[in-house]
Amino acid sequence: MRRWRTTRGADVPGLDEKLETIYDEVLRRNPGETEFHQAVHEVLDSLGPVVAKHPEYADRAVIRRLCEPERQIIFRIPWVDDRGAVQINRGFRVEFNSALGPYKGGLRFHPSVYLGIVKFLGFEQIFKNALTGLPIGGGKGGSDFDPKGRSDGEVMRFCQALMTELYRHIGEYTDVPAGDIGVGGREIGYLFGQYKRITNRYESGVLTGKGLAWGGSQVRTEATGYGTVFFVDEILRTRRDSFDGKRVVVSGSGNVALYAIEKIQQLGGTVVACSDSSGYVHHEKGIDLGLLKEVKEIRRGRISDYAQECGDPARYVTGESVWGVPCDIALPSATQNELNGADAAVLIANGCSVVAEGANMPCTPEAVRAFGEAGVTFAPGKAANAGGVATSALEMQQNASRDSWSFEHTEQRLASIMRGIHDRCLTTADEYGSPGNYVTGANIAGFTQVADAMLALGII
Ligand code: NAP
């Protein structure tokens, strides 16, 4: 066996011939799907010591089966815009793995969505969901629809058109979508309404992220951001440290970013910068969360509006990376591959000591390698941002028992799940000879959970 440097930082004995053959097969069978290749490579990177210890995984083709989605659905979404013109988008649902439970994962509305993005997200989701310890499989979906600049009526008609096809593939025991980029409470409402209309069933458990008045869970809106911060809080606790007095940069200003900022502030940290796809705002005194929520959640405005309306000196910057703002902790919470090797070098030079992924795969392999070499603690998204899907599973639990829990109770459950994921990552990393490596720990712990279930269920 040769030495293998992982894309996510650690130098472990690893990717043996069998794994390399599997990766080559993934490249051959899924041409052009670069994000999917990246996500698969990252997991295979960690699995060298696992296949050495457990030859049965390779013998029963568990990894090869895991890399092939159980089902991939691509469909046409025709709808009529406000001018009366017919628009056509493409819809996707990739039902990746159901060894642990019904497929679970969000829907993304963004013009960049194509099969490779949905497959990368679905693949990640399998291991993330396994890490939560809850009975949920992995899936993901979405559309190349761009909600920016669309009226409320257009968004509603688009959601109805999408659900007119999707409804036949989903169900509380089959596949349970939720939100992601471009899909929040408003969109989940329109999707649920159309599902209910078509099926004539009030099947609350078919979608998560619902409104509190009609089957939603407390803390679901906050869960991914809060969960990421709880995870970092655990990392800091292992060093006998805390958020108190820390400078933090959070990228994005959507669902994950807003509630990460909220929890950081509650824990005594100062968020000095956040962003959207047009630029970032640097606010040295700390982001005014009330104003940010008003601009982003209520008015669906831009981060430049925040800077303009903010009484204090807040600087709006375009054409530069938000990672240039000095910080102790960085939470990339916008989108995939938004933090590259050069950004990592700047963060390291500025003394950043913890990076946790609020978004899915926001750090490029080069960035992750740089963090590993510099001794920066790095928490991968499949562990750090699992709080969203975990709380979705809690929403499913409440729906199944026709119950609804208090905010405090649900938040405590979330915090305890994040602690559990954190500890499992560390224990597994120790067990496989990479102490302190959250990437190795998350990949192996998630993988073995799913792989054991797949072995038990036979060749299916
Ligand atoms: P969201 O509410 O739609 O917000 C996305 C934010 O990212 C927006 O501020 C958006 O700015 C910004 N953004 C998008 N593309 C960008 C780019 N190329 N460069 C810089 N900024 C960009 O989405 P979200 O739910 O917060 O999701 C953010 C990330 O977290 C995604 O990777 C998602 O998969 C992941 N995630 C979400 C959840 C969840 O529960 N929502 C759970 C787990 C993981 P614009 O408004 O300018 O586009």
TrEMBL record:
Annotated binding of substrate, by residue: 104, 125, 128, 179, 392
Residues annotated as the enzyme's active site: 140
Residue ranges constituting the Glutamate/phenylalanine/leucine/valine/L-tryptophan dehydrogenase C-terminal domain according to the UniProt record: 217-458
Residues at which NAD(+) binds: 224, 255
Keyword set, alphabetical order: NAD, Nucleotide-binding, Oxidoreductase
Feature type site, description Important for catalysis: 180
Pfam families cross-referenced by the UniProt entry: ELFV_dehydrog, ELFV_dehydrog_N
Gene Ontology MF term list: glutamate dehydrogenase (NADP+) activity; nucleotide binding
PROSITE patterns, alphabetized: GLFV_DEHYDROGENASE (PS00074)
Biological process according to GO: glutamate biosynthetic process
Annotated Gene Ontology cellular component terms: cytosol
Catalyzed chemical reaction(s): L-glutamate + NADP(+) + H2O = 2-oxoglutarate + NH4(+) + NADPH + H(+)
Database matches in Gene3D superfamilies: Glutamate Dehydrogenase, chain A, domain 3 (1.10.285.10), Leucine Dehydrogenase, chain A, domain 1 (3.40.50.10860), NAD(P)-binding Rossmann-like Domain (3.40.50.720)
UniProt KW Translocase keyword: no
SUPFAM superfamilies per record: Aminoacid dehydrogenase-like, N-terminal domain (SSF53223), NAD(P)-binding Rossmann-fold domains (SSF51735)
Role noted for this protein: Catalyzes the reversible oxidative deamination of glutamate to alpha-ketoglutarate and ammonia.
Family membership: Belongs to the Glu/Leu/Phe/Val dehydrogenases family.
NCBIfam families: PRK09414.1
Quaternary state and interactors: Homohexamer.
Record protein name field: Glutamate dehydrogenase
